[in-house]
């Protein structure tokens, strides 16, 4: 947990990241930045999905509609926070010459998306009317 | 000196396009927010909708600053954590706005 708090402090302190270790090849930093942006796009897509559930499934019961939308929005928030956290960790690992951090997040996110998708199919087909 | 000679991978260009794509995704989310707010029609809805548009403009500004830095310096410096956090903050605030509109 303290590691996580330290990472959060790094989000706002560029000089701290820059002082550690040596500067990696700029191409690696830019690749890391593009990965960060790809995750951010995923997060924005999930947020857009939350809006879309609310707007384009108006026949659903309120609880299902709001529940699915909030699940997607929550996944979007988690995904964007994790994006910046992972970016900082990768940047620091590259500066120190360590291995890049492993992550359980991608399978976790895909499971959440799969569960929401299945729930949406079930709700739209069978129970959501009225 | 031609940048293509120096960097066959065109890294700064690809990064610039990644920022553009991400801005476009943010624009899609903002447009969906506007649609939700107009559908809703309440004063809160309009306020949240304006906030979402402001957030998108904030994201556009971060992207623009970053793209300018990428174009001006060579080799381009790494992304400042402040800018990464600002971009993420825009996305998270948009999600909060969405939650307010949906509930």
UniProtKB/TrEMBL annotation, chain A:
Residues annotated as transmembrane: 36-56, 62-84, 105-126
Subcellular localization is given as:
Cell membrane
* Pfam families in UniProt: DUF202
Q: Could you tell me which residue ranges the DUF202 domain spans?
A: 27-92
Stored InterPro entries:
DUF202, IM_YidH-like
Q: Which domain of life is it from?
A: Bacteria
Topology relative to the lipid bilayer, per the entry, is:
Multi-pass membrane protein
Q: Look up the record and report any one GO term of the cellular component aspect.
A: plasma membrane
Which key words tag this protein in UniProt?
A: Cell membrane, Membrane, Transmembrane, Transmembrane helix
Query: Could you identify this protein by its name?
Result: Membrane protein
Organism lineage:
Bacteria, Bacillati, Actinomycetota, Actinomycetes, Kitasatosporales
